[in-house]
């Protein structure tokens, strides 16, 4: 069995949350400058680490070190990190949908006012969990069930 390919990079500074787009002076929508800056930091760190998950499937683990005990919204931090990885290019992370990123783990590791950061680990998975299982695997999963013989007869 081969070991899965994995990339790890750290984004220095306090993790930022994804902020919604706001209307500009003349009605056009634009992203918040803090969000764009953080996404560019994530993209730079991903490129330096050589991230090449492409179309996956992969698992993303985000370990957060905050400057204070005030917890940030995990979904918005995840969104900012994923958008930053997409900014790094389609070879780094093609998209952040469920077919590509099949598992996401976000955890608060520590509180350090001097050195807040977000450490991101992207690991390729052995098999695509979003793809349908072959018929033989489905039957094997139901082997102990009386439904296996009646509902799924072998042809």
Portion in beta strands: 25-35%
Mean pLDDT metric: 80
**Major beta-sheet overview:** 4 strands, mixed
Number of strands: 6
- The backbone outline, from C-alpha atoms, is globular
Q: Can you tell me the CATH architecture?
A: 2-Layer Sandwich
The Cα radius of gyration reads: 20 Å
pLDDT < 50 runs, ≥5 residues? none
The CATH first-level class comes to Alpha Beta
**CATH topology-level name:** 60s Ribosomal Protein L30, Chain: A
Number of helices: 4
What is the total number of structural domains? 1
What is the terminal-to-terminal distance?
A: 33 Å
Q: List the secondary-structure elements in sequence, H or E.
A: EEEHEHEEHH
Structural class: alpha+beta
Output the strand order for the largest sheet. 1-6-4-5
Helix content: 25-40%
Tell me the name of the CATH homologous superfamily.
Holliday junction resolvase RusA
Describe the structure.
This protein has one domain: Holliday junction resolvase RusA (60s Ribosomal Protein L30, Chain: A, 2-Layer Sandwich). Helix 1 (33-49) packs across helix 2. The two termini are 33 Å apart. It has 155 residues and is α+β, with helices and mostly antiparallel strands. The strands form two sheets. It has a four-stranded mixed β-sheet with strand order 1-6-4-5, with helices on one face. Strands 2-3 form a two-stranded antiparallel ribbon. Strand 4, helix 2 and strand 5 (101-111) form a beta-alpha-beta unit. Helices cover 28% and strands 25% of the residues. The protein has helices spanning 33-49, 74-87, 135-141, 147-151, and strands at 6-12, 22-23, 29-30, 58-66, 101-111, 117-124.
């Amino acid at each position: 069995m081969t070991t899965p390919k994995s990339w790890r990079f750290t984004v220095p500074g306090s993790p930022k949350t994804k902020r919604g787009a706001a209307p500009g002076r003349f009605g056009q929508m634009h992203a918040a400058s803090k969000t764009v800056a953080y996404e560019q930091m994530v993209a730079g760190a991903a490129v330096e680490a050589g991230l090449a998950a492409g179309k996956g499937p992969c698992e993303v683990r985000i370990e957060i070190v905050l400057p204070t005990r005030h917890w940030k919204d995990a979904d918005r931090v995840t969104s900012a990190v994923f958008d930053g990885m997409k900014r790094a290019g389609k070879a780094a992370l093609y998209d952040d949908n469920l077919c590509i990123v099949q598992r996401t783990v976000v955890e608060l590791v520590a509180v350090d006012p001097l050195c807040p950061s977000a450490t991101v680990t992207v690991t390729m998975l052995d098999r695509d969990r979003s793809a349908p299982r072959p018929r033989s695997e489905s039957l094997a999963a139901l082997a102990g069930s009386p439904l296996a013989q009646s509902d799924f007869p072998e042809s």
